[in-house]
Amino acid sequence: MRKYDRLILSVFVLCLVVLSILPFGCKQREADKPKIALIMKSLANEFFKTMEEGARSHHKEHAGEYDLTVVGIKDEEDVARQVDLVELMIAQEVDAIVIAPADSKALVPVCKRAMDAGITVVNIDNKFDAGVLADKGAKIPFVGPDNRKGARLAGEYLASRLRPRDKVAIIEGVPNAFNGIQRTLGFEDAMRTGGMNIVSSQTAYWETSKANQVVSALVTEYADLKAVLCANDSMALGAVAAIKAAGKSDEILVVGFDNILAVQRLLEEGKILCTIDQHADKLAIYGIEYALEMLKGEGTPADRETPVDLITAETLK
């Protein structure tokens, strides 16, 4: 082989080596700063807006540690769109997904596909269904509050203002949402312990307008209704409006869950008795920090319980 030909061959081999190294080198640099996707539920809900603000604030303070993408769906029932968002994050090859699922069962399969693609998944706010997780062979840690305990706290506070056998109604969240189911159970625990009469328990799908319709009908059907326990504050707002329209604001107590700003004002005015703070501004942060720990291989993934606090007019002072 001529000297010139050997030189050309050496340069060609060197180029192949460099090209084979470059992608790996880029991947290593990307791995130093992981990409985390926060996938939330309804962006129209103040609770999730607060969650987003908390996550973005945390990212701003730790911008050198990770990149953040925040997405959400139009309303609580748009499960198909949330599935699509997880698929999109898989295609974008994020390192971790922190998700507040709209449905405790329907989002498990796509999150398992994300895990199979090498993506770390952390579940926040609304816990995945244990049976579906087991069926899919998926172990996804839950970082969030004990919703049953929180609802029981609110129910017990309400019970202290009522008399045994008083009639109460429960406004539930989306039927397949674990957090909604747990809140209903917590309300039931407190009402039964206090000897109250639960005359109705039905869903308003987390929505203000639907809660308004349901409570309007309840107020008409049960003239001596004494309280309405709502599984989130958005529905509590609808309940308050329906009760006001019926001229019964001084007769029917309302309980909420989430401690959004709009409800704090109503607490101060005495139009809502109490709510539960599950610290929306920190909930996504807890999930993000746990995802970062998992990406670093720190510890075995396990559920982590986060705080819930009873909020009344007195605690706001």
Task: Describe the protein.
- The protein has 317 residues and is α/β, with parallel strands linked by helices.
- It folds into two domains: 34-144 and 279-306, Rossmann fold, CATH 3.40.50.2300; 147-277, Response regulator (Rossmann fold, 3-Layer(aba) Sandwich), CATH 3.40.50.2300.
- It is built from eleven helices and twelve strands.
- Helix 5 links the parallel strand 4 (120-124) and strand 5.
Domain module count? 2
CATH class bucket of the largest domain: Alpha Beta
Share in helix: 40-55%
- Oligomerization: single chain
SSE pattern, N- to C-terminal: HEHEHEHEHEHEHEHEHEHEHEE
Largest sheet: 6 strands, parallel
Distinctive features:
single chain, 317 residues, alpha/beta, Rossmann fold, 2 domains, 6-stranded parallel sheet, 4-stranded parallel sheet, 11 helices, 12 strands, 49% helix, 19% strand, elongated
Secondary-structure blueprint of this entry?
Layout: H1 3-32, E1 35-42, H2 46-61, E2 67-73, H3 79-91, E3 96-99, H4 108-116, E4 120-124, H5 130-136, E5 142-145, H6 147-159, E6 167-172, H7 178-193, E7 197-203, H8 208-221, E8 225-230, H9 233-245, E9 253-255, H10 261-269, E10 274-277, H11 280-295, E11 304-306, E12 309-312
Parallel strand pairs: 1-2, 1-3, 3-4, 4-5, 5-11, 6-7, 6-8, 8-9
Antiparallel strand pairs: 10-12
Helix pairs in contact: 2-11, 3-4, 6-7, 8-9
